[in-house]
Amino acid sequence: DDDDDIPQLSSHTLAALQEFYLEQQQREGMKTSQGFNQYSIGSIEEDWQLSQFWYSDETASCLANEAVVAAGKGGRIACVSAPSVYQKLKEQDGKDFSVCILEYDKRFSVYGEEFIFYDYNHPLSLPENLLPHSFDIVIADPPYLSEECLQKTAETIKYLTKGKILLCTGAIMEEQAAKHLGVKICKFIPKHSRNLANEFRCYVNYASGLD
């Protein structure tokens, strides 16, 4: 029988897939029924092929609040590959700070001038108006758990920041994070909206509220 060669999804996988598509339909329905907030987490779906995993609402809020405090009044915040933190910061738009998002995924260009296309493979290929050491804090979440990705993202971070760094990456990257950015692990445990297999942690190089 020719059908024998067609791969079949297990009932468990099929159920999980159906659940995912149902959730997606419900989210799309919510977007049209509510006065949709383009800055809410999930307004742009995760693209797993780009290694995208959004933070939980609580984690994104915590990191955004930490960034605002660390940046200080009138501070500038850069979110490098950390769009869910950017979205939370934009929800606080009335506060006295400015923020931009450096991101490979061009869907985030809907955020206008604050969006800067960013490819970690070209860490210093940045617009001329993005001046060196012009951000009070840089929050970064490199897309891949590899030293190469961290090292290249670190070049961008060091170019942008006046000093303060908040890095989110796997626990297995602790040694490399210290080596490339001089950051130390925090007590705060970040969570994602979908559970990840790898343990995730935050790292800073300043006295933060995350300990």
UniProtKB/TrEMBL annotation:
GO CC terms, sorted: cytoplasm
InterPro entries for the chain: DNA_methylase_N6_adenine_CS, Efm5/EEF1AKMT1, Mlase_EEF1AKMT1/ZCCHC4, SAM-dependent_MTases_sf
Single GO BP term: methylation
Reaction(s) catalysed by this chain's protein: L-lysyl-[protein] + 3 S-adenosyl-L-methionine = N(6),N(6),N(6)-trimethyl-L-lysyl-[protein] + 3 S-adenosyl-L-homocysteine + 3 H(+)
Keywords tagged on the record: Cytoplasm, Methyltransferase, Transferase
GO molecular function: nucleic acid binding; protein-lysine N-methyltransferase activity
Main location: cytoplasm
One Pfam family cited in the UniProt record for this chain: N6-adenineMlase
Coiled coil: none
Subcellular location: Cytoplasm
Protein name according to UniProt: EFMT1 methyltransferase
Record organism: Nycticryphes semicollaris
This protein's encoding gene: Eef1akmt1
